[in-house]
Design goal:
The complex is a heterodimer of chains A (about 325) and B (about 500). Chain A is mostly helical and about 325 residues long. Chain A has helices spanning about 15-25, 30-50, 55-60, 65-80, 85-105, 110-130, 135-155, 165-170, 185-200, 205-215, 215-220, 225-250, 265-275, 285-305, 310-335; strands at about 160, 175, 180, 255. The two termini of chain A are about 15 Å apart. In chain B, β16 (about 320-325) and β17 form a beta hairpin. The chains are: A mainly alpha (about 325), B alpha/beta (about 500).
Chain lengths: ~325, ~500
């Protein structure tokens, strides 16, 4: 029993460490990811000499804005111990749908909301399958993935160029701050991260997400709104995929139905590397952001090397493996107590 | 008994009927609860206790009857509804969230907010206040999983107090607590009672029921047997109300177990210096034919760890195991099974029973695994084995095609025992085989263990209930702090002797 441990004696380092681990154990994987990111960046600088420049670091955000947005949505879903495999296909579908609508003269103020709603609806569909038809998240989102990819081909089989100035502005407008670059897409991604972090940390909805991931049965018995929260998590993930579709369209200047194949896996990898447990209940949006940057750094380093981009996947794969093993160790350690 | 009509009941359940497919789980049960009382709900497993509680807490909807809370008729369709009406439940397996902080677990869903944002300072301040009302002072920002089950239970009770509950249901709250933790819990319960909270207490421990309860309601087979003041209900009468038959059963078992064991030959299994760093200090254990060796010790004393090492479920890093005199390698459970050692785990849900298979399938699983998958145990052979063991252990209902998850805990345990016995082991290790099961099933299992040992089977029996260990065992191994501290001959030892053996060592350790 530790009921009587509140006596205030001057604290040694030992007690502080112990208190930290008893309070903030779930931050440890995030710090690990941050450590890896810093190590990668420093190693890149040591090797290439021109790696740690504002230009390279800025492009880390700008080139991966869509991935960052996807990762935020995915974090919500994985925190509930679910998974959403559809995000890559939803990105492709909303992007090609948006491109087609723009090419047919629909105003951009209509197109963007439609893209977001399209993503949200697919998220809702997946959530309903999971919640009311008791389908495994893996299978339900696989169905969502096929549906979205099919819809993308239905809209167009080939690439559609986007010439709408507002969309292109999102990517091409560069705010230059002391040699650092920031595009509107980057701003959007950072806002999504901030919103995601605030919602998860400071709203009852956000805390219920964690509760469901901790133990869904308990959350239900504690009287928390489990059904509503889970549905909303998938809707948020779908909406993020729609928004990523907008950002990706701006980034590519076109919509293409084969876009985003395998992106869902990159997203999941980034989230996991960022310290979110696949078993749910533990993880942070900020961690996912670090995960995306780790992914981006590896990609940049490999293009600096002039090597095949397939090495990105291999490195990410290896890193993911390490992280999953580390997570297993952490989980089995804490359950042994 | 005369009902005290002066106090209006906070909960009045009248004629509650609940049907499950093929079963009448509750048949017109009346139950009333007064503010400021501790009301024990007693009955064998399958008697309808949990069903009645679930009807009250909104998990099940009722097919007949009515529920009044504070004089108003109510029908709850979710636990949230029941909580809103002031009825909270603390379940046996503490249903909280290990991944969140203590404070959050207390306040979740009721967090104070400022400008739409959760006010974390307020959350922890309020949580600390609710906890300290129960005499608990802990760091509310620490993770729930870093605390003991006992403390988690108190956290669950604090949570109930946040919603200002008028009714608190404690479903088997003490089954994984040690003595001092139970005392602390009871202190809290008495305090809440004095503040006017009505408490429903479900437990299989008769001592605890008498220690804490004001009134006792007994259910049997889904029907109400009666409600009495605890002081007016002698223990024997309570047991016979629960069982529907008077039992001198335990006395018989005790008498049957009190026999001499021949320890002159080679032990069936002999472990020497068996240990694992950080888990168990090297310990010796011999078990002879026809002997029941009890292992006594508190939770975490190393009793489960010892048998897990012996069985190869965990890997020993020191010591050796001999079966009938010859040293063998027991690195995995498979090796142990080859040497005809059987192990029934304390966690029958996670490590034993397979809920989605039928009783018959669960029973033949052990033989099947021993035989290999190519030689299927089929047809009439299966039927013979299954009906033999179901009858021998008294599995109820006696339907081999029933899914195991639909059986009561006691009957699941019998099925598990049957599975191991069907493999004809020479040593069977039973880790907490009677935890969380009712008195009737407990007596059945104890009787069976005694019979098997009399027929020559070697048994290692672990239980938190020292009475049970003393009753069944011929020799008692006492463990403490991951260490074997001694052996007692059960013939001239009482529960007090065992307690003294554990406690004596404790004093020594402190000094």
């Amino acid at each position: 029993m530790s009921a009587a441990t509140s006596t205030r004696i001057p604290e040694g380092i030992g007690t502080r460490v112990r208190r930290f681990t008893s309070r903030r154990a779930s931050w440890i994987p995030v710090f690990a990811a941050l450590g890896i990111l810093l190590a990668l960046l420093l190693a890149g600088q040591a090797y290439f000499g021109n790696f740690l420049t504002p230009r390279v670091l800025s492009s880390l955000l700008l080139d991966n804005a869509y991935l960052l947005i996807l990762a935020v949505g995915m974090t919500f879903v994985i925190l509930t111990a679910g998974i959403d495999l559809s995000v890559g296909a939803v990105l492709a579908f909303t992007a090609i749908m948006g491109a087609r609508m723009l090419s047919e003269g629909v105003p951009v103020v209509v197109v963007i909301p439609v893209m977001l709603i399209g993503g949200a609806l697919i998220g809702l569909l997946i959530g309903v399958l999971i919640q009311f038809f008791d389908v495994q998240p893996f299978i339900a989102s696989l169905a969502g993935m096929f549906a979205a990819r099919g819809l993308a081909f239905l809209v167009s089989l080939s690439s559609i160029k986007v010439e709408d100035p507002a969309i292109l502005w999102l990517q091409t407008k560069l705010f230059n701050i002391d040699g650092w670059y920031l595009s509107p897409t980057g701003v959007i991604a950072l806002l999504v991260v901030a919103a995601g972090a605030l919602v998860l940390q400071f709203t009852r909805f956000g805390r219920t997400i964690y509760a469901i991931g901790g133990n869904e049965q308990s959350a239900r018995l504690m009287g928390l709104p489990v059904v509503r929260t889970k549905l909303l998590a998938y809707i948020i993930c779908g909406t993020c995929a729609g928004l990523a579709g907008v950002v990706f369209t701006a980034y590519q200047g076109a919509g293409y139905p084969l876009n985003g194949i395998g992106t869902e896996l990159d997203t999941i990898a980034a989230v996991v590397i960022g310290g979110t447990l696949l078993t749910g209940g533990s993880g942070f949006v900020l961690g996912s952001m670090i995960g995306v940057f780790v992914y981006g750094t590896i990609k940049t380093a490999i293009s600096f090397l002039g090597a095949e981009q397939s090495w990105t996947r291999i490195t990410i794969g290896a890193l993911l493996l390490v992280f999953v093993v580390v997570q297993r160790v952490i989980v089995s350690r804490s359950s042994r107590r | 008994m005369t009902e005290d009509t002066a106090v209006r009941p906070i909960v009045a359940m009248t004629g509650i009927t609940i049907r499950f497919p093929g079963v009448l789980a509750l048949d017109g049960v009346d139950f009333s609860l007064r503010p400021g009382e501790v009301h024990a709900l007693m009955g064998e497993n399958g008697a309808g206790k949990s069903t009645l509680i679930k009807a009250l807490t909104g998990v099940y909807s009722i097919d007949g009857g009515s529920i009044e809370v504070d004089g108003e008729p109510r029908s709850f369709s979710t636990t949230a509804d029941a909580q809103a009406a002031g009825i909270s439940t603390v379940y046996q397996e503490v249903n909280l969230l290990p991944n969140l902080s203590v404070g959050e677990n207390v306040m979740l869903g009721h967090e104070p907010r400022r400008a739409g944002r959760i006010d974390w300072r307020g959350v922890h301040a309020e949580a600390a206040e609710h906890l300290s009302n129960l005499g608990v002072t802990i760091d509310t920002r620490s993770l729930l999983s870093s605390h003991s089950i006992a403390l988690q239970q108190l956290v669950a009770i604090s949570r109930a107090m946040v919603t200002d509950s008028k009714v608190l249901v404690l479903d088997e709250p003490t089954s994984s607590l040690d003595r001092s933790e139970v005392e602390q819990l009871f202190g809290v319960v008495r305090d809440l009672r004095d503040r006017g909270v009505a408490i429903i207490f479900v437990s299989h421990f008769l001592d605890q029921v008498y220690e804490i309860s004001d009134r006792i309601t007994v259910l049997r087979n889904g029907k109400l047997v009666g409600t009495s003041a605890a002081a007016d209900l002698p223990r024997g009468e309570l047991v016979s109300q629960m069982l529907g038959r008077v039992v001198d059963e335990f006395e018989n078992i005790s008498r049957a177990a009190d026999r001499q064991v021949d320890r002159t030959g080679t032990p069936v299994v002999s472990a020497t210096g068996l240990g694992r760093r950080g888990v168990l200090e090297p310990a010796d254990l011999d078990v002879f034919d026809g002997e029941v060796v009890g292992i006594a010790g508190l939770l975490g004393s190393g009793r489960t760890e010892l048998v897990r090492l012996l069985y190869g479920a965990d890997h020993a890093d020191s010591g050796r195991v001999a079966v009938r005199g010859s040293t063998v390698r027991v690195a995995t459970p498979r090796h142990a099974i080859e040497h005809r050692i059987a192990f029934s785990s304390e966690d029958r849900r996670a490590e034993g029973i397979i809920g989605d298979l039928t009783v018959a399938e669960n029973i033949v699983l052990g033989i099947q695994a021993r035989r290999g998958w190519l030689r299927k145990v089929g047809g009439s052979e299966k039927e013979t084995i299954v009906s033999e063991y179901m009858a021998a252990l008294g599995v109820r209902p006696a339907d081999p095609s029933m899914l195991v998850k639909n059986l009561s805990g006691g009957n699941q345990q019998k099925v598990l025992l049957a599975r191991w016995l069907a493999t004809a082991p020479q040593l069977i290790i039973l880790d907490e085989p009677t935890r969380g099961i009712d008195v009737g099933a407990k007596a059945d299992i104890q009787r069976k263990v005694t019979e098997l040992a009399a027929d020559g089977l070697a048994v290692v029996f672990i239980s938190s209930e020292l009475e049970e260990v003393v009753r069944l065992a011929q020799r008692i191994v006492v463990m403490r702090d991951r260490r074997k501290i001694g052996e007692l001959d059960a013939h001239d030892s009482s529960v007090d002797d065992v307690v003294a053996a554990i406690a004596a060592e404790a004093r020594e350790a402190v000094a």
